[in-house]
Amino acid sequence: MKSRLLSAVAALALLSGAPVLAQTPSTPATAVAVPPLGFAKRTLANGLEVYTARDTSTSNVTVQVWYRVGSVDDPEGRSGFAHLFEHLMFKATKDFPDETFDRLTEDVGGNNNAFTSDDVTAYFQTIPANHLERLIFAEASRLSSLVVNEAVFESERDVVKEEYRQGVLAQPYGRLFSLFVPATIYQDSPYRRSTIGSIEDLDAATIEDVRRFHATYYRPDNAFLIVSGNFEPAQLDGWIDRYFAPIANPDRPLPDSTVAEPEPTGPREVTFHAPNVPLPAVVLAWPTVAYDHPDRIPLTVLDGILSTGESSRMYRSLVYEQQIAAQAASRPDFARKAGNLSAYAIMAGGETPETGIAAIAAEIARFRDTPVTEAELAEARNELVANALRSRETIEDRANVLGFALINTGDAAVADRELAALQAVTAADIQRVANRYLTPQRAVTIRYLNADDANPVSQQATGVTAPVTVADLAPVGRIFELLPEGQRAALPDTTDPVSPATPAVADFTLDNGLRVLVVEKTGLPLVSARLNFDAGSADEPAGKAGLAAMTAALLTQGTATRSAPQIATEIEQLGANLGAGAGPDFSNVYANAPANVFPQAVALMADLVRNPAFAAEELERQRDQTLDSLRVSLATPGPVAAQAAARVIYGDAAYGAPGSGTLTTLPALTREDVAGFHQRLYRPSDATLVFSGAITEAEARTLAQSAFGDWRAAGSATDTASTPAGSPLPPRVVVIDQPGAGQAAVTVALRGVSRTDADYFPLTLGNTLLGGSFTSRLNQEIRIKRGLSYGTRSSLGVRREDGLFTASAQTRNDAAVEVADLILAEIARLSTTRPTDQELTTRQAILTGAFGSQLETVDGLGGLVAGLALYDLPMSELSAYVGKVEAIDGAAVQSAFAEHLPVDRASLVIVGDASTFIEALRAKYPQVEVIPLTALNLDSAALQ
Asked: Is the pLDDT of residue 500 over 90?
């Protein structure tokens, strides 16, 4: 996508206009109707299909263009071309310079992004409705007159290489899922090539190849234009006719990338090795069907029963009961011309691949040998209803659902028919497709292991044949250059703005001290609840890192009357999302469910909070899973840098300890530790319950009283840490050496401010300018100008006490010092110079636009309200937010950075292959500390 982030798109359009009855184990619920998408269609004379849906409840509009070109169309020897071109489409046209799309979207409070997968490259923007004409103009301009010059081509190719290193080489299982799985499953289909391609093919590309690729596939009859949001239909039609209709359609046919994938002739097995693989992994996969094949529907339901949620067969068997896997799931991939279903397990510590292979095979055999139960089918149906509601919450969501249906079937009505078809699936259907496709003779078995001297790193297959060759591409045609400023077509004017409305918040307190906040949102029948406690990792006793997170995780693993499997089953039967988590200062329990079953979801939520069992066997299970997950994260440069940075800034103070725990503290946690933490800190008088969505204040009051009104905490509360941030520490430069790392993670860290600090708003705006968006200064310097990283970011990291400010990027190892210098220079620039008025205006728009987007979803709205309550801020801050952002001036930003984030107090942490950069770094910082990853000790402020 744009984050230009590559997407492994496997989303399904599980939508219907038909009402569906959701059931709980005990009480039938009122039917909930999933509204139809409601898009109108028209086709221009040049073949462009246009789909529009008006929604006046929002102040925004989304514009999307979906092109029927993906990695399946990459020419032979040019894998990754479709994805590379996705990046280039954000550059100049004859009428506007590079990065204009970011100016037209982010700078006015909107956003833009894109993704590439096997069959599609899609571009989408959401902006304030009064900027719609400009986006229609801009999309037509890049379709018809894109500028591709040598400098842009080479820069974006370097960015894609960094994306490859970050997503494929630096991730422990990146090679497995991005490269080896598709290459092994498919035998002849071009789907066997990775969407991101290979370094070799990217290097082989020429600018002429790229221009020919655009001339071949970027044409009106190969695209769908989708517009959803607040617009006047006649006015929009006029703009589309003005800008898109004149674009001529080539008379040349599109190349045919179809290759019939042969039926398997027998089982196949292969083993791959890669560096820094902390736990072995296994994959069993089977070729299945294309997206529009009727058998996709029962295979989709089968997949839901196999691995959706903790009540699924794979999780229950491999993770919960046998405890042989740290993770276990399945991945259905139904593309336009072929498909597959894969099931994988990342094995638990000490387990062998053979154990995982046998366990997955046994679960698949159950589908073939025995019909699934009616309870499993009912659970799958309810999950589909809930997911259908969630997948159309926003105008962007609904356009996405339509786009996937169009790309995969060409039929918009599929999106509104599909859920009914899924509801009609029977146990016999599932058993039939299991016996047709998921047989041992059709199975592909993959083992993925750590490389060593005896087993060198497996290489990506290159030189793979493809149905399309460079010779099949259209001629270059006209080469466009950016016109002189006076000759460019002027950007259209904006229309009158539509202001977002902030809803009222009801606020009351139960007799037991529980504060309840309610914010009603009309529209879809979805409701969200958040129960927040003043209980975070800062409240953990010394040497008990991970206790807050473990306590939260165990809430869903058993109560006085429900076992962990029963809880998982009930959550999924309701179609709910329900869970818990902990941060530095707070813990929260959350629920999101369709309105018709929301009371049952809240009743379950209350049982989890009030009556947790904290069974010793569940603690052991959860601890082992957490340790395995920690081993995986400690093999990845980014997470290692983040955890080390906290220790560097806070030392031995409470905020310095890793919130997830460490390899030494987790095994030492006891049931008494967990139960004691819960008893001391999970108390109604120190909690806030937030309801948001399709719920009135009266309904919320009744529900809160019923679920929590008689709750009285046992025992007495204890004082929590008064200074979790500790005293400021001297800056450090730390290198954590990971030989063979695919990339280096570079993090600059400083002690920041609390959420209630007077400079919070100026620092927030300054952080957005520094690294809080794609158009930020860091991204401009490091990614766009130099191609040194796929993406950079910075975070203010506010907490109750002094927060953890970080600015970071991942880059190739030999560029780590250069990237560190660039980050430090940009932080310093904010302390020494005032942002321009233009920069302030655009950053203010980004912040207010993101705020408006949060208001559009029930979880986003609830999160805003809960965030104010957590920091004891008045609810009036919700309506005051925009005004406070717009009141910030450049002097305030400079002053705040100079006072709170001066670079002479900054620490630097780099995780990567030190052999490639340590001498250059030591020349700048003679005091640098070098710590081998194998010696890293996150229990200590010294890190070793």
From this structure: no
The 10s digit of each residue's pLDDT in 838-891 is: 999 999 999 998 898 888 899 999 999 999 999 999 999 999 999 999 999 999
Q: DSSP 3-state assignment of 769?
A: helix
Inform me whether the pLDDT recorded for 722 exceeds 90: no
Reduced to 3 states (helix: H, G, I; strand: E, B; else coil), residue 916 is helix
| DSSP H/E element including 766 | helix 760-771
626, 557 contact by CB (below 8 A): no
d(CA 723, CA 154): 50
Structure token pair of residue 605: 């939520």
pLDDT, tens digit, 9 for 90 and up, residues 857-871: 999 999 999 999 999
The helix (run of H) or strand (run of E) holding residue 530 is: strand 526-533
State residue 115's pLDDT score.
Answer: 96
pLDDT digits (tens, 9 = 90+) for 568-584: 999 999 999 999 999 99
Beta bridge mates, 201: none
Is residue 804 within 8 Å of 752, Cβ to Cβ? yes
Q: Report how far residue 213's alpha carbon sits from residue 470's, in angstroms, rounded to the nearest whole number.
A: 8
What secondary structure letter does DSSP report for 62? E
For residues 25 and 226, the answer to whether their CB atoms sit within 8 Å is no
- Tens of pLDDT along 514-558? 999 999 998 889 999 999 999 999 999 999 999 999 999 999 999
Residues belonging to the chain: 944
Half-sphere exposure of 758 (CA within 13 A, CB side): 4
Q: Which helix (H) or strand (E) holds 646?
A: helix 637-650
Residue 23 pLDDT > 50, yes or no? Answer: no
Please tell me the predicted confidence (pLDDT) of residue 17: 28
Burial class (CB in 10 A: 0-12, 13-18, 19+), 208: middle
Backbone angles phi, psi at 196, to 5 degrees: -80, -10
3 state DSSP class of 645: helix
pTM for the model: 0.90
641, two tokens: 């840098």
Kindly provide the residue ranges of all beta strands, DSSP E only, lying in 96-141, ordered along the sequence.
111-116, 121-128
CA-based nearest residue to 147, from 195, 116, 101 = 101
- Cβ-Cβ contacts under 8 Å for 471 (sequence gap 6 or more): none
Burial classification of residue 872, based on how many CB atoms lie within 10 Å of its CB (0-12 exposed, 13-18 middle, 19 or more buried): exposed
| Interatomic CA distance for residues 550 and 620, integer angstroms | 11
Both tokens assigned to 852: 């408006």
Domains in the chain, ordered, with CATH? 19-248 (3.30.830.10), 268-392+408-450 (3.30.830.10), 506-708 (3.30.830.10), 733-935 (3.30.830.10)
Q: CA-to-CA distance for 20 and 32, rounded, in angstroms?
A: 6
3-state DSSP assignment of residue 334: strand
* CA–CA distance, 61 with 226 (Å, rounded to integer): 10
Binned at pLDDT 50, 70 and 90, residue 720 comes out as: low
Tell me which residue has tokens 């309105």.
Answer: 595
Instruction: Specify the pLDDT at position 495.
Output: 83
Check if the beta carbon of residue 8 is closer than 8 Å to that of residue 194: no
The SS3 call for residue 737 is strand
The pLDDT of residue 239 is 98
* Three-state secondary structure string covering 568-628: HHHHHHHCCEEEEEECCCCEEEEEEEEHHHHHHHHHHHHHHHHCECCCHHHHHHHHHHHHH
The Cα 589–Cα 591 span in angstroms is 7
Which of these, 110, 132, 114, lies nearest to 846 by C-alpha position?
A: 110
